[in-house]
Design brief:
Helix content is about 30%, strand content about 15%. The protein is an alpha/beta fold and about 525 residues long.
Length: about 525
């Protein structure tokens, strides 16, 4: 499989997890009587009433980062005096299609958020701020409908757009480094929440961040960013920890190791190379930026450039992220808030599936060869001893299991242990191997997605996924637990994650085990991975 085509499919595996079917958008108002008005700190907005809940969509939380504001930290949104319509979402940020061919869509004028709140009847509700996934190259806040969290959980939920790819994570000496505009956008949205949550019935001193995949990585950044201090009081990381990593050549034999957080100088060097490739190599730094800012968004939103600048930078002097997050956690340098750290049992299946046709793992010999490519020949016997092919239906599923443990599960639990020395930490494993595949990505025969990356999302949000009665019951439990944590900092009846390694496994009542605690580090061989693949 050519690398460029795989990169598009790799992006699709991250990003198809976000897509809802047509018709999943917000309902339209039947009359102006159903259009409530709220006065924000920038001006009044008119939302939409839906009976038990209300939505206010497309509210600008920062100025459009266009023209001279491209690659600048977010600036305040302009004030307005007339009532602004908030009945439809704002534009999504520039991105490539999550699934299938096509050019870029969206707009650079995209710094909007959406508020879903219970219908009037109380104030001081917990506020939940959702940061979407998509590998920092795709996604938008309006892809998620949080009505269940608002109605059943009584929370005010805010979903956020932020800049993506080269628009959000570019670096260059002329910028003074790699300022992590995407994370700075999220911080600007949190400052908006602090100023406006009470106007929608929320408590600005009771803010819980939650996010999946890249959204979880963003929350990891906020946990360790000095600029995020005081902006939130709880954190839920879903399948995106500070230590997330993927071994080299694990998904595709031509791809190197994946690390979502990289030294700032690496991003800056890539920016110098990209500027030259775009014909903007100039001796004067200001001239370089003028040239780059003069480029049309379509010239920048190529698969190669969007993927190259999809990593969050850290470094001394970086205002947003001065230290590598996982090392900050290990040293205890993070904000003291209660945390839920979660992962899915079969995280890597959806990623590995995208390359199996071109690079099958058909037998024990192919399995052993892939182990050697990713971990080195010396490690093969030890890995095989813990993940013998005979213990799995196919060699490919064996490889997916060990990649899930090495890349997502054990890194998340390692971060959980580091944080648990200082704050309450709770851990979950989403274990429903019959979770519906709503992604639009085809499954490979004999290689079911199971409880793969992102497949817990329909249990929290209204999405185009048909749940069974037992799965709906699990959804209700998860909704109640997420919102209870947002309110109190403790999910009901969950064990604390500590040195004992207790993790709450979440599955429907009819599945093996249902909801029950498990020894996460033992079941996923984390002592082995922590020693060999830190």
């Amino acid at each position: 499989m050519p690398r460029a085509r795989f990169v598009r499919r790799w992006s699709a595996a991250w990003c198809a997890l976000l897509m809802l079917a047509a018709g999943a958008g917000p309902a339209s108002a039947a009359s102006r009587a159903d259009r409530p008005v709220v006065e924000t700190d920038r001006g009044p907005v008119r939302g939409t009433a839906h009976g038990a809940y209300r939505t206010f969509e497309g509210i600008p939380y920062a100025a459009p980062p266009t023209g001279p504001l491209r690659w600048r930290l977010p600036q305040p949104a302009a004030r307005w005096t007339d009532v602004r319509d908030a009945g439809t979402p704002g534009a999504r940020c520039v991105q490539l299609p999550a699934v299938g061919p096509g050019g870029p869509s969206g707009s650079e004028d995209c710094l909007y958020l959406n508020v879903t709140s219970p219908s009037p009847g109380g104030n001081g509700r917990p506020v939940m701020v959702w940061f979407h996934g998509g590998g920092f190259v795709n996604g938008a806040g309006d892809l998620y409908r949080p009505d269940r969290l608002a109605v059943r959980g009584g929370a005010v939920v805010v979903t956020v757009n932020h800049r993506l790819g080269i628009f959000g994570l570019f670096g260059h000496p002329a910028l003074g480094g790699a300022p992590d505009f995407a994370i700075a956008d999220q911080q600007a949205a949190l400052r908006w929440v602090r100023s406006n949550a009470a106007r929608f019935g929320g408590d600005p001193s009771d803010v819980a961040l939650f996010g999946e995949s890249a959204g979880g990585l963003g929350i990891c950044a906020h946990l360790t960013s000095p600029a995020s201090a005081g902006l939130f009081q709880r954190a839920i990381l879903q399948s995106g920890s500070c230590s997330t990593t993927m071994p080299p050549r694990s998904v595709l034999p031509t791809l190197g190791r994946y690390e979502p957080f990289v030294p700032e100088q690496r991003t800056v060097a890539a920016g110098v190379e990209a500027a030259a490739g775009l014909g903007c190599d100039r001796p004067d730094p200001d001239a370089v930026l003028d040239c780059l800012r003069g480029k049309d968004a379509t010239a920048l939103a190529t698969p190669e450039l969007m993927m190259r600048f999809s990593l969050v930078s850290y470094g001394t002097g970086n205002r947003v992220l001065p230290e590598e997050p996982r090392r900050a956690l290990e040293a205890g340098r993070f904000h003291r808030v209660p945390v839920i750290e979660g992962f899915n049992r079969d995280e890597m299946r959806i990623f590995l599936a995208q390359s199996l046709a071109a690079f099958p793992i058909a037998d024990a010999g192919a399995y052993r060869a892939r182990l050697e490519q990713s971990f080195g020949a010396a490690a093969v016997p030890a890995v095989e001893a813990r993940y013998p092919v005979a213990a799995y239906p196919t060699p490919a599923l064996a490889f997916a299991a060990l990649l899930s443990d090495a890349s997502f599960i054990c890194p998340a639990l390692r971060d959980g242990r580091a944080m648990a020395r200082h704050v309450p930490v709770y851990a979950y494993r989403f274990s429903d191997r019959d979770a519906p595949n709503f992604t639009g990505l085809p499954e490979v025969p004999g290689f079911p997605y199971g409880a793969s990356h992102g497949l817990e999302l329909p249990y929290l949000f209204t999405m185009d996924a048909a749940l069974t009665a037992a799965q709906r019951a699990l959804s209700q439990r998860m909704t109640a637990d997420w919102t209870a944590f947002a309110r109190t900092g403790r999910p009901p009846a969950w064990p604390r994650f500590d040195s004992a390694g207790s993790v709450l496994s979440l599955a429907p009542g009819g599945s093996p085990g249902g909801i029950h605690p498990v020894d996460g580090p033992a079941e996923h061989h984390c002592a082995f991975w922590d020693a060999r693949w830190p």
